[in-house]
Amino acid sequence: MNRDRILLRKVGRYYLRYWGVVNLEDLLRLFRSGGSSNVDNSTLSYVREYLLFLATEEAVRSARRAKRERSTFKEFAVEYSQRNYGPVDVARTLITLPYGLKAYFNYREGYDAPEYSLLGYLLRRIYSLVKAKSNLVNPRSSLRAAREDSLSNPNLDFTRDFRKTFNSLSKLKDEFPKGKFRRPVYTDPGWLRTAFRAFSVTRKVEKVEVSTDLGDRNLLRFVLWKLYELYVFYLIVAYLQARGYKVLKSEGGGGRGRSYVAVKDGEEILMSFNVPLGNSRLKRVDSLEGLNEYRGRPDLALRGRKTFLFESKYSWRHSYITAGRFKVMAYALEYRPDLSILVYPGLKGGRTYDEEEEVTANLHREVERNGYLCFDYEGQEIYMVILDPGRDDSVNLGIIQDVLGPRLS
After folding, report:
1. Window from 2-6, 241-245, 272-276 with minimum mean pLDDT
2. pTM higher than the cut 0.70
3. Fewer CB near the terminus (10 Å): N or C of the chain?
């Protein structure tokens, strides 16, 4: 099995959750034209479960928006009374006038608008499909996980959220009248279009494949460099847990809603992703506004009593790793962390095109001896570290221990 597929097998199941894919709009941007799935069954099952979770969330969101609009949406109606409260309907009044009633036109709340009946149909169908297909809400579903450990990482698990959302859908669906299906039209309100998207995903979820390759079928394509960032995070979490830290989700500070905190004996380490840090030394970019846009965004930052910044480069090319070397130098200048760490899977042989790339090739040969190499800039330390997903995780965890261990003691 090549390194790309090993990487996908190890962390592919957590990709969507880690990267903040929180609605179907985000999800649909990931669909590409590609080949058949190249992941194991448990990973594929996990990804499909997450798609059902997103669809269920969208269905609930659609229902709640529709309920809010119900109180303001008006529809045309004919009413009868001894007094008229609107324009008189002459034809109907001629029939009812002998009984002392007048017919008049009025606008009432739109509880019977056909869109709500259609939404009721979609919500019930989504509920039934999710119940039949999701292993998390129905252990006898058609999407049973292949291995018991397919939901084993509590930091990226969505099981509790899924069940809570599914229970909400169970109640909301009965608040709307029953209706019949029709195809979506461009005049449909936004909440109804959202429900149509959720319905489409739940119907077709078994057809979703996962791959890192391009090909000729519709699939969900995972980008390798993002998977590698996730793998590095996965290793850091495993390392901290082995040292007695409890890793929990945190509110804010993580970029796209993603941040975690590691807690041990009252000590906290905040873990954030791809966001500028508050201690940036950048004060001005000529006369340009929006300074935050120009600040560095480390792939992963650990901030507690000490600060560690990580830049992950999933490449075997000298040019890319050379760029990474200078990027962590820039982070060291801007943020003055205790450690700046360039993480990469290794290098392949090949031509180098300038002196800096030749230096990178020479440095890599030194890194291969121990798995890491330290630069000391008058007390400011920068590391080059090889974390190869193609080898056993215990080897990579040992390297993390060598680099971080003495500084977390």
Report:
1. 2-6
2. no
3. C
